[in-house]
Amino acid sequence: MPRPTPLQPTPSRLAAYPTPRPAADLTLERPGDARAASPVRESPQAPERAQAQERAQAQERAQQGVPDHRADSRPGIRPGRTPEPPAGALASWRHDLAFPGPGRTSRAPDAPGRPSRTAMALGAVAGLAVGAALVNGARARRAEHENPPPGRFMRVAGTRLHYLDRGPLGRDLDRHGPDVLLLHGNGAMVEDFLASGLFGRLARRHRTVAVDRPGFGHSPRPRRRLWTVAAQADAMAEAIVRLGLMRPVVVGHSWGTLVALSLALRHPDLVGGLVLASGYYYPEARLDVPLLSPPALPVLGDLMVHTVSPPLTRAMLPRILAKIFAPVPVPPRFLEQFPIDMALRPSQLRASAEDNAMMTFEAARLSRAYGKLELPTVVMHGDGDRLIGLDRHAVRLAQAIPGAELEVLPFVGHMLHYARPDLVERAVDRVARRMREGG
Predict the structure, then answer these.
(1) Closest Cα to residue 159, out of 232, 214, 227?
(2) Model pLDDT, residue 110
(3) What pLDDT is recorded for position 410?
């Protein structure tokens, strides 16, 4: 006789088993029991009593922790083999594990207590973020240690304002000329005017003050207020009064021109004249505004400036410098004297992003009042500026301010005070002459 074929693990047999046929003679065996039960005559109540007895024994074994090794008398099941569970969640899971369908794998779920792959990935990202923050923080502290403040401090507008103050202190305008206040652009600091040589030139005949705007250089930017153009202009006005400057010529470069214009509009009695270089004066759609502004966002910005922003900015720095100095090459004195590591600190990157995010709105607000200015003004711009358009900004501003003078520098880019500091000094002298002449 051929040997019976073992049952195949088909879904129907795993999900449900045939009910054993009732037998008149029921043989019960236990593994290891040498004797066999004698045939008995089954009464009508015998099946119920047997099932009740079997359930009681199963409960007793379960309480004692003894596994069930009883033989199964169902057809096709060998004695001593534990049957598969009936249809249900466990049977369905085992079927899916043994016979995965298309696009499914037979991988077992993660063991209890073992972290999932998502948790492990998030932990790795968090570890990298913490490591990057520690590295960037150490670099920022080292930059501040290697570049101590060259000037002094004063308390204005709720912050410690760092400034340089050089030059003659006399009040004779014929001999010394009027006082000068220098306001740097976005991402810069007072060292920008030192490296360009403009500060030294002006300090020979003018009392010259250069300040680190709040958030840049060694001037902190408290986060309890929004440092708009108007807020920064008010801080500069307070500094003028505290330092005793007599209606200075305010020289602003790039973003600093917005502060200079706001200062002249809000405090006209404190400003004698304006020299505006490479400024952004009117709103326009710019790609760099949405790209460079995310570090100004709450929470996300904090995470960025302490982790990814410093290395990314450092990697892009050669291209940035080439663009702002073009069409002339980056001068060696900038690379030697300007503290680049100070500009890559998390605090300064956040301040730079905040100024960048406000630039378009602030220019739109200020542009409505340019016609109210009544003071000597020189607007300077390089015709090779690749950052800010000459016609859209400098030409329009010179037409909007009554009596303003426009000076276009040929073959010069955005950083015109490096290319031609002598022309900036001459512009200050022309404004001083008009101040003496009364307009």
Answers:
(1) 214
(2) 55
(3) 97
421, two tokens: 């500091």
Radius of gyration from C-alpha coordinates of the chain:
41
Q: Determine how many CB atoms are found less than 10 A away from the CB of residue 275.
A: 27
3-state secondary structure the chain: CCCCCCCCCCHHHHHCCCCCCCCCCCCCCCCCCCCCCCCCCCCCCHHHHHHHHHHHHHHHHHHHCCCCCCCCCCCCCCCCCCCCCCCCHHHHHHHHHHCCCCCCCCCCCCCCCCCCHHHHHHHHHHHHHHHHHHHHHHHHHHHHHHCCCCCEEEEECCEEEEEEEECCCCCCCCCCCCCEEEECCCCCCHHHHHHHCHHHHHHCCCCEEEECCCCCCCCCCCCCCCCCHHHHHHHHHHHHHHHCCCCCEEEEECCHHHHHHHHHHHCHHHCCEEEEECCCCCCCCCCHHHHHCHHHCCCHHHHHHHCCHHHHHHHHHHHHHHHHHCCCCCCHHHHHHCCHHHHCCHHHHHHHHHHHHHHHHHHHHHHCCHHHCCCCEEEEEECCCCCCCHHHHHHHHHHHCCCCEEEEECCCCCCHHHHCHHHHHHHHHHHHHHHHCCC
- Report pLDDT for 99: 54
Q: Let me know the angle formed at the C-alpha of 373 by 424 and 397, rounded to the nearest 5 degrees.
A: 60
Q: What pTM was computed for the model?
A: 0.73
What is the model's pLDDT at position 3?
A: 53
Q: At what angle do helices 117-146 and 309-325 cross, to 10 degrees?
A: 50
Q: What is the mean pLDDT of the chain?
A: 83
Instruction: Choose among 251, 277, 254, 253: nearest CA to 431.
Output: 251
d(CA 232, CA 227): 6
**AA letter at 172:** D
Residues of the chain with pLDDT under 50: 1, 4, 6-7, 12-18, 20-40, 71-73, 76-77, 79-80
Q: Which residues neighbour 267 within 8 Å (Cβ) at sequence distance 6 or greater?
A: 233, 234, 237, 240
CA-nearest of 280, 270, 265, 256 to 371 is 265
Integer angstrom CA distances of residue 178 from 83, 208, 212, 248, 435? 103, 9, 21, 6, 9
pLDDT computed for residue 127 by the predictor: 81
Bond from prior residue into 290 cis (ω within 30 degrees of 0):
no
Please name every residue paired with 407 in a beta bridge, in sequence order, or none if there are none.
380
